[in-house]
Amino acid sequence: MTKGHRITVEPSDRHVRVVHGGQVLAESDRALVLRETGCPARYYIPPEDVRLDLLTPSETRTHCPFKGDASYWSRPGAADLVWAYPEPRADVAEIKDHLCFYDVEVG
Fold it and tell me: Which pLDDT tens digits describe the chain residue by residue (107 residues)?
């Protein structure tokens, strides 16, 4: 990591729910919260708690120097709504294959 940049990953003690277009896409009590310098807290949800049948793999791929290469999924009217790191960097290995959404409800 570069000087001054920090990432932490820990189990969330909060219930995480993702709703889009009136449909629940994910709901979990097992999410991980990733905190990264300069970014909002992000909740990474285990794939078993995500309605993958409502998502379509996207061609989009991005690279983060701190987390690795991300793959994306979309749904009608919401391109690249969710992403995951299939092979994350060792520093954040816990997020492997967990899915992260831009908008979540945390309770």
Answer: 567 889 999 999 999 999 998 899 999 999 999 999 999 999 999 999 999 999 999 999 999 999 999 999 999 889 999 999 999 999 999 999 999 998 777 76
Structure-block tokens of residue 95: 């997020």
Q: What angle do CA 52, 57, 58 make, to 5 degrees?
A: 145
Domain ranges of the chain: 7-106
User: What is the third-level CATH fold of 7-106?
Assistant: 2.170.150
Can you tell me the distance from the alpha carbon of 46 to that of 77, in angstroms, rounded to the nearest whole number? 24
Instruction: Please give the pLDDT value at position 19.
Output: 93
Closest CA relative to residue 8, chosen from 49, 30, 31, 41: 41
Rounded to 5°, the CA angle 65-1-99 comes to 50
Q: Using CA atoms, how far apart are residues 65 and 51, in angstroms rounded to an integer?
A: 29
Strands 32-36 and 7-11 turn out to be antiparallel
